[in-house]
Design a protein that fits this description.
elongated, five-stranded mixed sheet
């Protein structure tokens, strides 16, 4: 077997060339110095931002805007309507009337019993406030109280046998007020 010799010869490398080949980029100390400068720059920027943030009084901040919030809307009574009169569809009909009047009817359905002679209003968040306005609107003399904040209601209206008369009185009073000339 014959061995084949390579025709290309390697050129002898001098000492100068070998050192320059090894040192292609900046020395490690330059990388360390650059990294240290970046860290110092970021730390000083953070420190300056923190100092500026703490020293500016919000009343004197030229970039602060005074935003005027809209006035709070008039509170709307949240009510449930329960049919205690035993008349089919009474709770739904009453709920529609109450919604037209501006109340937030969140539920309507049947009461536990149907033998209620008079319409009742039950305050669910304590006496006074919105429950009183519901009782006044329906012209109910007595406001009962059965506080239950888990219901998220202002009042419960239990319709009695007199519910049509009460709602008609309210409707008549509303119509009279609309027909009365404005001064």
């Amino acid at each position: 077997m014959s061995q084949r010799k390579s025709t290309s010869r390697k050129k002898p490398v001098s000492r100068r060339e070998s050192k320059s080949r090894r040192r292609r980029g900046p020395p490690r100390a330059a990388y360390a110095a650059a990294l240290l400068m970046v860290i110092v720059l970021l730390a000083s920027a953070w420190w300056g931002w923190r100092q500026a943030r703490e020293s500016v009084d919000p009343a004197e901040d030229p970039f602060a805007r005074q935003v005027e919030l809209p006035p709070e809307p008039d509170p709307i009574a949240r009510v449930e309507v329960l049919n205690g009169a035993g008349e089919p569809g009474a709770a739904q009909e009453a709920a529609e009337i109450l919604r037209e009047a501006g109340f937030d009817v969140v539920y309507f359905g049947n009461a536990a019993d149907f033998d209620n002679p008079q319409t009742r209003v039950i305050a669910r968040v304590g006496s006074g406030g919105r429950a009183d306005s519901v009782a006044g609107w329906l012209r109910v003399d007595r406001l009962e109280s059965d506080v239950d904040p888990t219901m998220h209601l202002d009042a419960t209206i239990v319709l009695g046998a007199d519910w049509r008369r009460r709602f008609r009185l309210v409707a008549d009073a509303t119509t009279e007020a609309e027909l009365e000339p404005q001064r």
